[in-house]
């Protein structure tokens, strides 16, 4: 995924992954893609809720070996 900005929140627990994601998204233009790497299962519900509240779109949610990768496209 060319141009995606990766936010590595592995090892962090709720609410820190969403806080890191929101901080990184703050200065980016609409259409930017952020990829969150996390291992806290709470991000499965926290990130989509945050994205919905902010007008962003969830592009993908994947899990492999306990690591979650969530892709958000900023609205």
TrEMBL record:
CDD domains per record: SirA_YedF_YeeD
UPF0033 domain boundaries: 7-31
Any Pfam family hit: TusA
Family indicated by similarity: Belongs to the sulfur carrier protein TusA family.
PANTHER family: SULFUR CARRIER PROTEIN YEDF-RELATED
Protein name: tRNA 2-thiouridine synthesizing protein A
UniProt organism field: Flavimobilis marinus
